[in-house]
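Re: weekly structure request thread

Next one in the queue (410 aa):
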Amino acid sequence: MKLISNVQNINITEYDYPLPDERIAKYPLAERDASKLLILKNNNISENQFRNIGDYLPEKSVLVFNETKVVRARLQFVKDSGAAIEVFCLEPITGNGDYQLAFSACSPVEWHCLVGNSRRWKDGLLTMPLNIKGKDVVLKAERVEKTDAYSVIRFSWEPAEISFADVLETAGEIPLPPYLHREAEPSDRDRYQTVFAKYEGSVAAPTASLHLTKPLIAKLKEQGHTIEEVTLHVGAGTFRPVATDTIGEHEMHSESIIVKKQCIEHLHDNIGRTIIPVGTTSMRTIESVYWLGVMLLEQGFDERNLHVNQWFPYQDRATLPYAKESLAAILKYLEMHHLDALHATTALMIAPSCPIMITKALITNFHQPKSTLLLLVSALIGEKWKEAYKFALEHEFRFLSYGDSCLFIP
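Done, posted below.
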């Protein structure tokens, strides 16, 4: 496979910056939309409050929200010996990987999981007594397979007619990012969730959207901006920094995306307007939709397991389809297969030299040093990210998931 650039040779040290621990926001502000907003527009950097973001958006912008909902994915078991074992649910095996089927499933279910303190759990069952909707329940966990990347855990419980969603709602904890260095608290159940979260499946919040409130969304609509919704279920890989010298050695994590046919139609019809993903997950979703359309145009419309490989956009091509043409291919595919939504997976790595085909601007938070999310930001605004982050550090901005936000308009 010949690539259009030397993207795989990018050294991750070029995307490092000093981030003191005290600049990482450990808790959110009392008011969601009171956070600071850094604005990069016309190559100038300024600051304001997030609640005033509408004043800086291009006229009649199209904002793309990620409707994923964070799952209470951490389960804390205690063995008879007193050893604490954490089981972190990553993705379902039950339901052929369909999150909604997996959550509605009754006992037993199987999931890919990470296991904390794994060496203390050699074999046997882990158990946890629960009370779910007034019924005494014993949750059991059995490890049926172990690989270097994950463990396959079979969960079972009685009475069996209770759903796994009810089990997690009662027993699970919100999986806060590891860099917060604290346990989840009751307030995190609300604040580490967007106000429009709908479809369960993420182990991390689409954090740029944490700043939005229902009144602010209504105000943005009154100002003439429109809202589109997509779903990308955020995986644990989003926290994994690039540990290799060059990004060509980094294996990008795969995530599930769902985009309704109506949303794709609206994006197709509004491609001339400023389309602004709210968060890197929304950007990754709509750019993946573009590349899925390219795949259909290149490989035919019979493909059923749609997946974007991390290097697919970098392949050497004589020409690329326009965004409208690619979205039209997706719509044709949905019509042919009588589908009302696009279901796919993506391992898309958006890095410098990646063609950005739908996104015109981005609302996002400040990201970890040496992360694929910084590569994404750089793909959109180039070296300006360094100036923006320097400004934020000098002006007391708060960083990472519960921190402040940016509006980048290249």
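The longest helix spans residues 280-299. Residues 306 and 344 are 5 Å apart (CA to CA).
Next request, please.
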